[in-house]
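Dear colleagues,

For the upcoming journal club I promised to circulate an example of a predicted protein-ligand complex. I picked one with adenosine monophosphate because it came up in last month's discussion. The inputs are reproduced below in full, followed by the predicted structure.
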Amino acid sequence: MTRELSGPREKCGVVGVSLDDRAAARPLYYALYALQHRGQESAGIVTHDGFQQHDHVEMGLVGDAFTEADLDGLAGGVGIGHVRYPTAGSVDTSCAQPFSVSFKSGSLGLSHNGNLVNAGEIRDELAGHGHAFTSDGDTEVIAHDLARNLLEADLVRAVKRTMGRIHGSYSLTIMHDDTVLGVRDPEGNRPLCIGELEDGYILASESAAIDVLDGELVRDVRPGELVVLDDDGQGFESYQLVESERSAHCFFEHVYFARPDSRIDGNLVYDVRRELGRQLWEESGVDSDVVMPVPDSGRAFASGYAEAAQDEGASVEFAEGLMKNRYVGRTFIMPTQDARERAVRLKLNPIRDVVEGKTVTVIDDSIVRGTTSRQLVELLRDVGAEAVHFRVGAPAIVAPCYMGIDMATREELIAADATTEEIRAEIGADSLSYLSVGAVATALEEAEADLCLGCVTGEYPYDIDGETTDRDVERPVVGDAAPADD
Ligand code: AMP
């Protein structure tokens, strides 16, 4: 049986800044705006003014969550922020972040992107030692564990001890009193990068957040690295706390989740998507009158595909034949299938003049449940497409994501137990092709062994109950039997 992971999965955007002589609240607010695509359920900021923490966490979009007065109340030149991804169904205020709390060892604020595999075990152990939990999220587990370690060890050692105990994916921005830190899990599953601002430094999930503050990307935080920002905004210190032989970068960040204008692990997401589109043409290009993206994420794939086709002399024309209503939220997280189908129709409208009488290739970044593709094929036929070929810029998603991206359950995944031909018939396309795993690795310029491909192979780089792992990995032993690991 597949183990239920504890608590809601965290699929989020995180940020932290340390500035020399300026309030951190507004830069954090703008950075969260740039990370809005990573989470729309709640937004929050915690700052420190040298004496105490100030926090404001609210449900909803960044633009709605803060008033001018809220930002004015967030005093201090250091702080962290968070946007949280929506979960299907219920809205849970207790899981909104940053999580902030005061312990004997000082005040702590935590923003987490990722998902722990063993949070339940650590929670049980800490609860046994008298720690009281107010939410069922992973983030509070990390905060309590760190607070406990800070009673006995300095900051760097305390973080190292906690990293030795938690297993799973995490990119964290942490504020301990007025010090801001960033931590990336030993496999570097979720992104995190460092930027230099005119008067300080920033840690953020994606470099687009650095761009909006007119900063410079310094580099990615390395897997297993702790970065401590100087509290006067003058620099940062780096501690490689855990060494791992292989990384497990999430390929889906590049395919769907991240902004195309972000640079992650050395690659511009836009370039990767164009290259994935080129690979798609190489592997399964089909002659048609037009090639069109499913907006917005399909756009770079379709332009790469069309360019590769034209390089080879094919007469495929790139066209925008589907228009998106940008005020409709993500259909993916609608609670019922009926609502999802209605939402696809509200969100995407074909332009008859572009499509009528033409053979069409449609490119989307991924097929998850198949709701979008099934509806699109039908819509395109309704407005007179002569043939509809579907091309997907990722391999078939056959297994759930336990590492922080909402991917639906195995039962809901259309490709979990169907062949490509069966899926083609199900969505009603004339032809259907996915990209190969090898092409993904080529486009990312990484070895397959250094990527997390769990959702497309069913083999995970972490030790997840009931699932197969693709490497020699075991969860840390927690509890009183566990060794102290300084
Ligand atoms: P589906 O309609 O269930 O097959 O989902 C596929 C569509 O959802 C594609 O258009 C993707 O761009 C989009 N998508 C893929 N993964 C996610 C995700 N984790 N969250 C929200 N949307 C997604």
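Two points we might discuss: The first helix runs from residue 25 to 34. The pocket of adenosine monophosphate is lined by residues 256, 294, 297, 330, 332, 364-373, 405-407 (CB under 6 Å).

See you all on Thursday,
B. R.
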